[in-house]
Amino acid sequence: MSRRSGVVILSLLLLVLSPSALAQLIVEPPRDEKPAPAVEKKAVDLLETISEQVASLHSPLNRIRSECVIADLLWKRDEKRARALFKTASDDLVNMIAEIDFGEQDVYPQLSWLNQQRAEMTNRLAAHDPEAAVAFVRATHIGFSRDPRTRWYAEMETNLELQLAGTIARQNPARSLEIARATLSRGVSYGLISLLNQLQAKDPKAAQTLYKEMVELLKRTDLERNYEPANVAWSLLYFQPPQANEEVYRDLIGTLVSSAVANTATDQTSISVAQNIYSQMPALMPLIEKYSPSRAASLRQWSQGVERTFDPSTRMYQELNRISQNGTVDDVLALAPRYSGELQNQVYQQAVWKALSSGDANRARQIAMDFISDPLQQRQMLAQIENQSIEAAINEEKTAEVRQILGRVKAIERRVQILLRLAAARAGKGDKKGALELLNEARTATDAAPAGPGQLMSQLQLAQSYASLDQDQSFAIIQPLIVRTNELIAAAVVLDGFDFRYFKEGEWISPGANTLGNLVNNLILTLGLLARTDFDRARASADQMERPELRLSADIEIARVTLSGKVNGPPVGGLQYLRIE
User: Fold this and answer.
1) Residue 20's closest CA among 532, 531, 560, 387?
2) pTM surpassing 0.85?
3) Domain region containing 264
4) Could you tell me if 303 and 323 lie in one domain?
5) Does position 27 have pLDDT exceeding 50, yes or no?
6) How far apart are CA 299 and CA 284, in angstroms?
7) 532 in Cβ contact with 30 (< 8 Å)
8) In a domain, 196, yes or no
9) Are residues 303 and 344 in the same domain?
10) 242 prior amide bond cis, ω within 30
11) Is 240 in the same domain as 271?
12) What are 114-162's pLDDT values in tens digits?
């Protein structure tokens, strides 16, 4: 294939393959189990080879990511080498952080990647040495500028520390409490509530200490005008006696009610905070009435004042939510004539979902056809009704009904996805023959599809779906996919920087946050999946990838899956795994 034709193929892939086409990839990982001794030795030998190769990578992004995975795999076999790899990766991250220019336009994706990599390395390291993970988080802390584009990172930093504290809480609740207290200097966050419950399970005394300090901090916080801490504070009421100290709990109620009634809702900020509190009242009022009944009356009176701040759409949503929870489909429909335009349309859409959640797909479909006037919205709702009907029919083993729906589906890619979903259900019931018949039918449909990106993705779906049922079929599909992927990557060399940035320091960036990158990621994940059943053929397939950094990524995934016994979840922007056993 010429370079020019490769560019055309890549351009078509980027233009045609939408995220929705990537949303429902069906795979079938086998049960996690220890590999045979001979296969385990091959995987260990492969791990030794790739641990030496990783230093040759030019891109720090690829090098750090590879070092983390290899170090994790090496820990039980050679802790000293594993620690050295983690240290090298940490040093590389520190150097990258030191070089951040907050004035650059692409600082946001840089910080996003760094946060993702720090979280991955923290989790891997914490599984082996929690204190080393704490030291790593501190060593790679990013100093913040006043640039508003980077302020969101402070919350990410706190979440990472609290996630680590949660891991440590299982073995050392006192150390976990110490980390949590350090984050309190930045204010309360939702992560603290999650940690509070984890501490409660391991060390109730430590949980009570953290709980009391959170309440004391909230008492000193301006909850009238600060949306996030106010929301966290009200959510904290769900941590209730006997877990919570009853005296402190009543103190928290008093603080929250006092801050609420003091909120006169005179500007947009205070109105937003007040309306958010109001929306939580139906669930929280029973708790307030139980533990501080004298406060309930003043809160109800305040709520009436908040209702006067509602604009027509907010008022409609409040009423619609109340009727949807407590009424019937007809009650929801009766609300529609009171509104017009888009508000009325929202009522009709809610009636559709009310009917569907009640198990009446025919009623939902009729409402959509009779009352949703916008053609695009109507088609979208009918498609979603059909999707849920298919899922329900598959779960209830109503194959004839699925076949009936399938007869109305024109798009080949959608037909393939339905067949794969049905095959998954069959295999889950132990019907291997029936599952294979459905996969063969899907393969015939895919072969007849127009050549293009949709066909590529369907082929990848099939390869993953065949993996634990018929490895020969899976490998037969994978081989031409690798050839096509090599062609597309060659085209990406020409397009690099025009639409996406595919390469850095002359290497393919993994995982790539674009359509082609997603295809490459899932191809590599599929090779790891296939290594569970045929290590040698998976390795041979990986060797057909032309770029050395991608061959290394595939080998790392093959070693990781073989030695850890775990198949990865989908990458960012990736595809959904469905277990078939």
Assistant:
1) 387
2) no
3) 223-309
4) no
5) no
6) 11
7) yes
8) no
9) no
10) yes
11) yes
12) 888 899 999 999 999 999 999 999 898 876 555 555 566 677 888 899 9
